[in-house]
Design brief:
The chain is mainly alpha-helical. It is 72% helix and 0% strand. The chain has helices at 4-7, 21-33, 35-49, 58-78, 83-107, 115-120, 126-154, 165-189, 193-207, 214-221, 232-245, 252-275, 279-282. The longest helix has 29 residues, at 126-154.
């Protein structure tokens, strides 16, 4: 005869916890599948920025062209370098930097600025992350027009290695995803993060070989130039810039970037697993 405690025992309650890897992976997968939504929102962000402008998004290209022409010619004189070598170097560096900067700054406010959509639209939070990365990538594509003009004017020694820029840009996009996701979740909880990132972004720019060539640092700083290797921005810029300009590069840049890609996504997925469901309450 069965005991009363066994017969009358109530069924176990269903699992309702949102802190599971399965739900985090589902959010990520559902976000990628809603491509039409985040692609449309990202393009609308650019159109809204240049609403009622005659040239519209072409101002992105014009701004990059002015920067490349003005600063490129001036700094090539300051550094004592040939304009044909320096202007392409600086231009491509700025293109990559603008993408990285956009992911960092926009990532800190990606969920804060989309508070209304998050509370009213039943969509994965990954949609807002992909929207931001897609928007920054569209800005990068606009600047490729300036890159094409640079190739025609200065004719850098482009080789078949230029196709290495394709996987390099793909890695850049992958890292942009975890940066936006990680900073976005953290910033909704700690509102001091956006101004902190905004304060240090300019310092990060000057510490990265965007305007100044790494060769000049190695020539003037000697062994201290090795400290530049500690700057992750240097490696991200180098894997894209070197093939786009046909210059040689060390494969250790790729190893560092791959390490950041894997480590960054593991950290971002851990944060997403534990705090994804709280974003709607924090905003």
């Amino acid at each position: 005869m069965q005991s009363t405690s066994t017969v009358d025992r109530p069924p176990a309650p269903p699992e309702t916890s949102s802190r599971t890897w399965r739900k985090a992976a589902k959010d990520l997968g559902d976000g990628f599948r809603q491509k039409q939504l985040w692609a449309h929102l990202g393009w609308q962000d650019i159109k809204q920025r240049y609403r009622r402008s005659v040239l519209g998004p072409l101002w992105i290209t014009i701004g990059m062209g002015v920067t490349a022409g003005g600063l490129g010619l001036m700094y090539s004189t300051i550094f004592g370098l040939k304009a044909a070598d320096y202007v392409p170097y600086m231009t491509v560096g700025f293109m990559i930097w603008y993408f990285i900067q956009g992911c960092l700054l926009s990532g800190t406010e990606v969920f804060i600025h989309n508070e209304g959509l998050i509370k009213q639209l039943p969509a994965p939070i990954t949609v807002h992350v992909l929207r931001t990365v897609w928007r920054e990538f569209l800005l990068f594509l606009h600047n490729l027009v300036v890159y094409a003009a640079i190739l025609l004017i200065f004719q850098p020694p482009i080789t078949w290695s230029v196709f290495l820029a394709i996987p390099a840009i793909f890695l850049l996009l992958l890292n942009g995803g975890w940066v936006v996701l990680l900073f976005g979740v953290a910033s909704t909880r700690f509102r001091d993060i956006p101004p902190v990132v905004g304060s240090f972004i300019q310092l990060l720019f000057f510490l990265s070989p965007i305007v100044w060539p790494i060769e000049i640092l190695e020539k003037n700083a000697g062994e201290r130039a090795a400290l530049a290797q500690l700057n992750p921005i240097y490696h991200f810029v180098e894997i894209v810039r070197a093939p786009m300009l046909g210059t040689p590069q060390s494969w250790h840049h790729w190893v560092v970037v791959l390490g950041f890609t894997v480590g960054g996504w593991l950290l971002a997925l851990f944060v997403m697993r534990n705090y994804r469901a709280r974003v709607a309450y924090w905003v």
